[in-house]
Give the backbone structure.
Amino acid sequence: MTKILPRKDVVIVGLGWTGSILAHELTDQGLDVVAIERGPWRDTATDFNIGYAQDELRYSIRRDLFLQPAVETMTVRNDPSQKALPMRDFGSFLPGNGVGGAGVHWNGHTWRFWDSDFQIKTNLTKKYGASRIADLQVEDWGVTGAEMEPYYDQFEYLAGISGKAGNIKGQLQEGGNPFEDPRSRDYPNPPMQMTYAPTLFAEVGRSIGLHPFPTPSANMSRAYVNPLGIAMGQCTYCGFCERFGCANYSKSSAQTTVLPVLMKKSNFEVRTDSEVLHVDLAPGGKSARGVTYVDTSGEEYFQPADLVLLCAYGLHNTRLMMLSGIGKIYDPGSGEGTVGRNYCYQTNAGVQVFFDDKNFNPFIAAGALGQTIDDYNGDAFDHGALDFVGGAGINCIPTNGRPIGTRPTLPGTPKWGSAWKKATVEGYKSTLGYSSQGSSYATRNNYLDLDPTYKDRFGRPLMRMTFDFPDNDIRMSNYVCDRMEEIAKALGGKQYAVSRRKKGWDSVPYQSTHNTGGAIMGTDPKKSAVNTFLQSWDVPNVFVIGASAFPQNAGKNPTGTVGALAFRAADAIRNQYLRNPGAPLVQA
Amino acid sequence: MNKLVLTLAIGAAALTGGPAWSADQADQIIRGQYQAVLGDCAGCHTRAEGKPLAGGLPLETPFGALVPPNITPDRETGIGSWSEADFRSMMKSGIGHNGVRLYPAMPYPAYTRMNDRDISDLWAYLTTVQPVSNKVEANQLPFPLNIRLAMLGWNALNFTEASFQPDPSKPAEWNRGAYIVQGAGHCGTCHSPKSFLGADKDSEFLQGASLQGWFAPDITNNAQSGLGKWSEEDLVKYLKTGVNAHSIASGPMAEAIENSTSKMTDPDLKAVAVYLKSLGSDVDSAQPAKPDATRMTAGEAIYRDNCSACHGGDGAGSGALFPSLAGNSIVAQGSSETLARLVLAGSQAVHTADAPTTPAMPSLAWRLKDQEVADVLTYVRASWGNAAPAVSSGDVAAVRKELTQ
């Protein structure tokens, strides 16, 4: 028997980065907002207690803060001819769980995508001709870099990003990224203090004509008070960011930038340990009535609301749309349908350079403390004579020197035993690593839909992920690996090893939790699930906010763009949607 | 916002045939609402998540539990059947409606210094609060203390009905501060040491006292244990926001700041600061003996492993987030009760409009033994210019015992 609860103005599914931002903005607007969060409440002093926050076994190896596959998993395969099988454990990517979401345990790399990323199809077609992207299904986002700029700025100041501008209002800035789009002002905080490895990487990069700059970081380079009045502490460089909550209020997350203010508002409420089963649609399916959720006792509730915001992880947003009948599920055969379309990932590769005579003290680290080279990212370089589009940021960001996970050894070293132990002692302090984080461009056969066989604990179909690295992206990654080898040679260690990306995506080894697409934004309702304000084309009182909206992924971490899109959606709801609730903001 | 709610409440009363309010009365009610802020009525008489002023959580006194009653104008369970004269009598002498004698957990020994106009304004405000039916059994003291007539004798020994006596030799601002601190603000109720009968020791006014498992620090101008190192601006900032360069409020003071001082006017906060900074002297400035070196060495090691990430290697803390331990007034108290409590149980900072972060100190009770807590506190209390007495493992054990009861 479903209990019917009192109506709210807004129900938000998931209280991570986007849910917190939207809740804060809409409660400021005077709306009555409830957030429903599948996982537990999490707060710094109690859940990331300084006495055990840096427990590598608990948090990194056993992944205490992450979504467990028993709660929700998905089936995976490389192409539509295969039978998909469920992931019995998350590996290649690790979705978050609980208040703060994956924003609790990210590293903190905070990028802006470029205008050439947003207008990608127009740009690439103009520069290289339509045939260059014939095998791909890349789409324009329907926004320009200039339109996104104020929202990036809002997110960066909320989160206190530490960095160095490369381009302020068209003026190039010494020491910043010369390839970035113009920004209205510098980052709110200066770059972090560099450790030795990225310092050396940058020196060598510069010596061969590249343009290294400090990676924009959500780890605080100094004490900071954000525009909400919330204070953050200076990072201690402990090296426990990714997979961990920060015990020092030094890494931006919903907990450290929004929740202290949001939770005190009388028109906001969060219900934790409560999983939304589906969005309930009115007869005819053209508007949402609210959501149905279940708590840990198994009790089912209907929460009526005028506005439904899907702010869960991007993959889960997409699945909730499919389970709720919001929009038509994409079919790669006919090319019809929009929900599940343009699932993309990240095309990464890595290099290790081994030295005899260097000590990098890798335990002095932070998740986003490092240097990046964008000379081969996106459309920063001419692809005219090349056989691919896209690119990769080359990042030397030694995030940690943790004792279990950080054991670099020379190629050919045994995987266990005394020889391995000896090699890890030698390699620990003297190995320099860097990696390419490559773009991931959409193809017709990389997509999400519902699995015909496997179901979750509530009897709902699991989502099915069909994905392999497109040939274009493999060619891109190999090209950037060649460039990384040039850097390795210039670094001059005794030996280096390159791990190249190969076809046949493997869901087991960890690669990246940058899953994008599935509910992409755009200007054409036949090709996109949401309009450029992230409003569902099909059910206009539903907004779908997250990396699910990316039509394809750039060679950059997605959180900065996710945050900017959240602010942009909030702005559209506050200043346009509420004037005429329930109506589409864009006419199809 | 509060003013708006009040206006609406008055409007509603007018529509439903309640008292016909005049504009003058509206001013009086708003003044009275401010008196309720100064007196922090809600601090005791409103439960967390409860209806305003409809009765609070039990106060654990050394003599037993007292539950702050419902002071909404409900006729059956509140003070709706009281007259203004009843109310004035209660505030001035602790004798309420029908001659019932209050226990001095209700700080009438301080409120007695409030002037008639302020009490009248407060009464006018309380009559406009939403009436709530909530029966509170205020007196839960054991026999014979539960006999209210006993307060006749207590009052004879400990209480004199009084009016505030301004000091004509001092400026008006100082007198305003004295009036708030001694009267409605009832600072001494927590911060003044108590006699064995639970009365304030006037000779040690505001010099610090233990209550409900916390040590309310010395708030005289004593350079070592009091506010001697604080400027008036520091004090105003602390009372307004809960945070300044020397301290971040937690525990009962956090509640007092949230409900009361953060809502006081800036001139009143300045007046309070001027007055408190004029109190006391450095008579007790003898430096305690330096703790022995082995305890300092042990304490320093524990500090580096457990505390320095937030409070800094030099005890300087970080702005509004992590309090400075160097020169911190809680660190400097003779009693280590609050300090031990903070380490064992953790604590969360107060939320105010100007300082919304509410950073928290984690509990370390599971991680540090009594001796280790004692050593690290001894180290902190004798480092970076601090000169407070060493802490024994027995001091810590007593706090741990109280917390686990």
User: Anything to note?
Assistant: Chain B touches chain A at residues 306, 309-310, 318-322, 346, 348, 351, 353-364, 366-367 (CB under 8 Å). Chain B has 18 helices and seven strands.
